[in-house]
Amino acid sequence: MSAERYEREFRQVLELFERHGSALVIGHVDPDGDCIGSMLAIGMMLEAMGKTVRCFAPGDRSELFDRMPGAHLLVPIEQVRGFDHDLVVAVDSPTTGRTENLVRPCADEDVVNFDHHPTNEQYGCVNIVDETAAATTMLVYRFMKTVAPERITAEIADCLYLGVLMDTGGFRFQNTDAEALRTAGELVGLGAHAYELAHDFIYMKRFRTLKLLGTVLDSLELHFDGRAATMQITRAMLERTGTEMKDTEGFVDYGAALDDVELIALFRETAPGEIRVSLRSRNDHDVSRLAERFGGGGHVRAAGLTIEGDLETARRLVLDGFAEMIR
Ligand code: 5GP
Ligand code: MN
User: Fold this and answer.
1) How far apart are CA 28 and CA 100, in angstroms?
2) Per-residue pLDDT at 5
3) Are 100 and 281 a contacting pair, CB within 8 Å?
4) Low-confidence ranges of the chain (pLDDT < 70)
5) Ligand nearest the Cα atom of residue 35
6) Of 7, 9, 138, 243, whose CB count within 10 A is highest?
7) How many C-beta neighbours within 10 Å does residue 172 have?
8) Which domains does the chain have, with CATH numbers?
9) Cβ pair 265, 256 in contact under 8 A
10) How far is the CA of 170 from the centre of ligand 2 (A)?
């Protein structure tokens, strides 16, 4: 991303931050590290500017995020509904639907949209959307560095670093480009704790989470002569190990670790009759297109969708989709 590309938009966002007294910062359902990092970094900047701020993302989140600086800004839904605000900042959310419509397209109120999904619907009054950025926090960093570099505290640097770390899979995925590494380096220079964040969010696992991983790996299957792989997580597996679905972040990457596998699907029984599917591609097969057929979306190499039905139905639909892509 060229530094100049969003210069004008960055000034517009700063002007909105300065003009308004209260802001709601919203992320997508079941927020990941990039989403939380973007929300908290923006939340802390606004707080330091003397604004009233609340951050919220629907669904479940790992309690690990409560350790992050700025986590005090995360509120329960009840404190979102009654919150009188004059600015909405959406992060990491390609559509307003991904925020469960807590964000509405720009009309009566000012909406800023920071995102890196190619399918972003540009619903903001100001849209900072760059699909070449490995993480949304890289766009937030670019914004802060351009308009208010003195505001990037070590706490904000930690949050921005978390997004780059998580969305590049610990600097392993194909999106790990020069800018991602440069951004990470600059953030460490500003005080981000690279070791502690990698330890807490990537390396460290609780006993019960590893036990669950064991059963999930046991469900691993190959299809189409080893060109595709599937894994599944049922409610029963969670109950047996005393875990919750939010403990399964990153599990899909074990399927993607298989040599020669091109397409990977992880099926998660999120509720009876509801299956969340995580898709990964190891080459240029575009899994976001398959996800979109079922109302989901994402990136070329990482996408997600929800299927109403049982595990068998979901498996059949996805494997049929894979068969078309591989053929
Ligand atoms: P995950 O499999 O890790 O849940 O999601 C992988 C990628 O797909 C993420 O970038 C995420 O934002 C996107 N994604 C997952 N589920 C959905 C969905 O239901 N709709 C859209 N638009 N994107 C999704
Ligand atoms: Mn992201």
Assistant:
1) 8
2) 81
3) no
4) 1-4
5) 2
6) 138
7) 12
8) 7-202 (3.90.1640.10), 207-326 (3.10.310.30)
9) no
10) 13
